[in-house]
Specification:
0% of the residues lie in helices and 45% in strands. The chain has 139 residues and is mainly beta. The protein has a single domain, classed as Sandwich (Jelly Rolls), CATH 2.60.120. A hairpin with a 2-residue loop joins strand 6 and strand 7.
């Protein structure tokens, strides 16, 4: 549908592999990226690249928060980005995702984080699990 409106597909991930080849994990609590613990906004989790927190199954990316003591935090989750694997200055993002029914209603999905001229797509969960089935960028 979007192509009919003048958008051109430039990138997509259908999560059809059992690994994330178009994504990069950010791990820790932010200090390794020049930020104070809590990623500069008092986030309570420590991000990991562990399969307990993020994995691909049956064409879906699962990001799952865990309540556990880990690296000075009370929770763990996953933080993924596409930097150096898909970088865009302008565009339209479409995502098909759902969260657990009994959790908060806001999907934990942030777009277009920027450092200088670099912008990258980010998935960020803490309170609820995210199941992403499709992610595309139209430019």
């Amino acid at each position: 549908m979007s192509e009919k409106l003048g958008w051109e597909l430039v990138w997509q991930d259908e999560f059809d592999k059992e690994y994330l080849d178009k994504w990069q994990h950010q791990v820790g609590r932010g200090e390794g990226y020049g930020l104070p613990a809590g990623w500069g906004n008092d986030e309570l989790q420590c991000y990991t690249a562990r399969p307990e927190n993020s994995y691909v199954t049956e064409g879906k990316l699962i990001i799952q928060a865990q309540k556990e003591d880990y690296n000075g935090a009370n929770y763990t989750s996953a933080r993924l980005r596409t930097i150096n694997k898909g970088d865009w200055l302008y565009g339209r993002f479409e995502i098909r995702a759902k969260s657990q029914k009994d959790k908060a209603s806001d999907l934990p999905f942030g777009c277009c984080q920027q450092k200088g001229e670099r912008r990258y797509l980010e998935k960020d969960t803490m309170e609820l699990g995210l199941r992403a089935e499709k992610l595309i960028l139209l430019n």
